[in-house]
Amino acid sequence: DIRRTSVDGQGDPHSSVWTDTLSVDDAASGVRFASYRIRLTLYRAPGSRLTPTVWRAGAMASDIPDRFTVPASTPVHARELRVPRYSQNVHIGQYPEYDNGGEAW
């Protein structure tokens, strides 16, 4: 079985890992990341001759200030969209690998 390898609660005195996000806990401390590494581990069924394929891998970094002001915009056109109502719990109990679907979506 293939299992998720990112685990919440990892970290050190300066940073934390929350599933797929690496964060500096105290930006005012001056700690900055100089680099990072992304690793892909490819699996295939035992005895299979099929080769796994990676179509895309990506990472993103940002250095956004903790507090900033966004100027207010003036709405020009207002219209109400007719969107069907759905509970975010529609998928509850499904997809246990993603916190049981609707519970976390």
Written overview of the protein:
- The structure is a single chain.
- The protein has 105 residues and is largely without helices or strands.
- It has one domain.
- It has a 3-stranded antiparallel sheet with strand order 1-2-3, with no helix packed on it.
- A hairpin with a 3-residue loop joins strand 1 and strand 2.
Please specify the SSE layout and strand pairing.
Blueprint: E1 10-11, E2 15-18, E3 21-24
Antiparallel strand pairs: 1-2, 2-3
Summarize the structure.
The protein is largely without helices or strands. It contains no helices and three strands.
- Helices, by number, come to 0
Gyration radius, rounded: 21 Å
Number of strands: 3
From the N-terminal CA to the C-terminal CA, the straight-line distance is 24 Å
Note the run of SSEs as H and E: EEE
How much β-strand is present in the residues? 5-15%
Mean of all residue-level pLDDT scores: 79
Name some characteristics of this structure.
105 residues; little secondary structure; 3-stranded antiparallel beta sheet; 3 strands; 10% strand
